[in-house]
């Protein structure tokens, strides 16, 4: 019996050692890699981002911190081809051909809304990267809100009077993988 148990132990030991090892990453390393691998993408496949993917992205976005938990943002997701074509008609290079635009509007009466919207956007950018989707932040819809010939676009967003477009995020499947641009670490100083 003793020999049987010893043999069983040795066989089990060898079998477990022969199994493929699964790499277990810490939460910190996953977040770190995600942050450092994200790039601004300016070329997209025409394939549309799914509703399920967008639901996940928005769930992460709205869980961003906000001052006093005001959640002062308004978000509009544009996948309507007629509206996307109209936006491209007014500003041809604006969306870089992305099949989806996420418009983020700030509360004009909330001093912290710009920051709140920034946190929301960062969550969008990071979860999109984790889903292997590309993103680029585009300032103020490329001037569309101030263009008198584009009032129909702004009206289509149906924003409350208290809000105005702050920026837009183009999102879609990547057709490019740009290298990281150099970062200036000298702008960070420790005060001991």
Automatic annotation (TrEMBL):
Record keywords, A-Z? Flavoprotein, FMN, Oxidoreductase
InterPro entries, per database record: Nitroreductase, Nitroreductase-like, Nitroreductase/BluB
Keyword Oxidoreductase among record annotations: yes
What is the protein name given in its UniProt record? NADPH-flavin oxidoreductase
> Where's the Nitroreductase domain?
35-90
List the Gene Ontology MF annotations in alphabetical order: oxidoreductase activity
CDD domains of this UniProt entry? PnbA_NfnB-like (cd02136)
Q: What class of enzyme is it?
A: oxidoreductase
Has UniProt tagged this entry with the keyword Oxidoreductase? yes
A Pfam family matched by this chain, by name? Nitroreductase
In which organism is this protein found?
termite gut metagenome
Q: What is its EC number?
A: 1.6.99.-
